[in-house]
Amino acid sequence: MKLKFNIESYNIEDCGFYKRGESSAKLYNLKSLIEDLSSTYQNIELQNTCTFNAASYKNQNQVFLYEIINKDRFSFITTWNKVDSDSNQVIGIKGSGKVGSSIETIKSNFGDDFIPGYATYFLIDKLNEKVFSIRPQFTLANGIRGFQTYAQNFICYFSRHVESIVVTSKKLKIVGYKESRESEPLSLISKFSLKLIYNQPEIETILKNYSHINKIIKNEKINLHSKFDGPRFIEFINFISGNNNNNKSFENNLHLELSVRPSEEDIASLVDRYKNYGENFGFKFDDNTKTIWLDNTKISEGIDLDVDFTTGNIFDGNDLMQKVISQSRSIN
């Protein structure tokens, strides 16, 4: 099946255990992470591969490892991202299915053994220490935030250097790290962070022309029930949005425009928020040109690929990996 894919490129900024305030890892590296992921979850049930407690993170559901493939300098990782909805528009995957195998998926009537969600795909260039998110056009999210959370927590709690952990009622507590030269191993912190590769001249143009910006724009999707409560507020939102049902848990799109004359520091702060957290902002200028969005400054590539599925809407990892490597300009 021929589909369009969007590929975004990320540099790996941190990967390993760091002493606070230092930029070089004391322990661990990308090669060790890939090796540990491959060995730790071989033949393990998918439902047992999440590395973190989602309740500890804002707006981050569980992430599971579906598949990891290693070939020369590249590794290909498919993750499964849990969603809260179990509507017939969402696919459920069998939690007891084994990592690396073709796992059963269904579209409705999920039992306890099925996890509703969607797959996301990542190509790791171990030689150049880069990650490429590979997003099919029909999927809105590339899953990069969940991937970072997954990898960082794996390093912290499940990598080869973890001496032992104690499970408490609230969280896992690390006792120590093997092969640490530190007198206090707990002074080390685990890190795995990615930085999106941008078109720097476009960023610099926005910063240079900050004094000509007259409006800042942001589109946001919020779950109104999580932000507000009370029947009158919900009735009001239903009225202005044309939503006649009385379900308190629904999402609405908000379009926010702020007429303002920002300082250079203001714009630099918004650029940093975008780079670090993916918050997208648009800017209007005095010459009334089109809105310039920070999302448009990232370096991305769209390619058409004739790809195979294994099960449900999950792509064959080997097939997708080989075709992306051979056809993408971003990678080669």
Any overview of this molecule?
This protein is of the alpha+beta class and 332 residues long. It has two domains: 2-197 and 299-327, no CATH class; 200-297, no CATH class. It is 23% helix and 36% strand. It contains seven helices and 17 strands. The protein has helices at residues 30-40, 144-158, 200-208, 224-227, 231-241, 264-277, 317-327; strands spanning 2-19, 63-71, 74-82, 91-94, 105-106, 114-125, 130-136, 162-167, 172-177, 188-196, 213-223, 251-259, 282-285, 292-293, 300-306, 309-311, 314-315. α1 crosses α2 (144-158) and α3 (200-208) packs antiparallel against α6 (264-277). The longest helix has 15 residues, at 144-158. It is globular and about 60 Å long. It starts with a strand and ends in a 5-residue tail after the last helix. 26% of the residues are buried.
Structure in a nutshell:
By secondary structure, the chain is an alpha+beta fold. The chain has helices at residues 30-40, 144-158, 200-208, 224-227, 231-241, 264-277, 317-327, and strands at residues 2-19, 63-71, 74-82, 91-94, 105-106, 114-125, 130-136, 162-167, 172-177, 188-196, 213-223, 251-259, 282-285, 292-293, 300-306, 309-311, 314-315.
Task: Give me the strand/helix succession.
Answer: EHEEEEEEHEEEHEHHEHEEEEEH
Radius of gyration: 22 Å
Largest sheet: 9 strands, antiparallel
Compute the separation of the termini in Å: 24 Å
Give the tally of structural domains.
2
Oligomer: single chain
Q: So what's the overall shape?
A: globular
Proportion of residues in helical segments? 10-25%
The total count of helices amounts to: 7
Regions with little confidence, pLDDT below 50 for 5+ residues:
224-228, 246-250
How much of the residues is beta strand, in percent?
A: 35-45%
User: How many E-type strands?
Assistant: 17
Helix/strand class: alpha+beta
Quote the average pLDDT.
84
